[in-house]
Specification:
By secondary structure, the protein is of the alpha/beta class. GO terms for molecular function: oxidoreductase activity. Keywords: Oxidoreductase.
Length: 238
Amino acid sequence: MIAQGLSRAILSVRNLEIGNAARNELLTSWPKCDVEAREVDYESFASMMAFGVRASKLDRLDIVILIVGVKAMKFSLSKTGHEMNVQRTAEATGASSRLTFVSSEVHFWTPFNEKNAVSILERLDSEGSFKKSSAMERYSTSKLLGVLWTRELADKLDHKTIFVNYLNLGIRSTPLYRSDPTPGIGLALQMIAWSSTVGAHTLTNAVAYHYGEQGAYLSEQRVTSPSSFVMSAEGEKV
């Protein structure tokens, strides 16, 4: 998007040192763009609120892309007391602003065994419900919750003011898999993973080329249907 003439870009980063390094790399190629790195801790509601308050003081905010690169394979609680995958994935002019959430096709894969719990979040935050053999299942469940939340948000917003969609970004060669002990994961990523550049193209497509399709789910740069559970009455109830 910067290459297409974006005048300002704000990078939301967990590590300001890494964020500033990315900023400097972007400025090397596009020195005329106003690039800024701002720190935000997705494990802290206070940090996210502070980031939002600061953003509210901008003269305009046209595009927001929400992506959190975490795939926790072991049980751990965030600072707020929620299970880490759930915390980071599911709980964060005249033209309308664009709000794009990064989801995943893995939301199709979860059996979502917690769906009938009295409190779904309390069940998910329990270490007893998190077993090492089902770490991938929990990751998939967190993505499903993100899809459900995004659709609910889209229904509540006027698309003329804020346009919302979400997408399957696909497998990318990024640090997301740093804690994944799956045998051969490194080789598999080398063979089939998209580069970060291709991932960026996919994000740009969702933001720039699907305006007007409020609440749409995209995969491989096309609007498609999310999982059958998402589209069911039971999914709507959750």
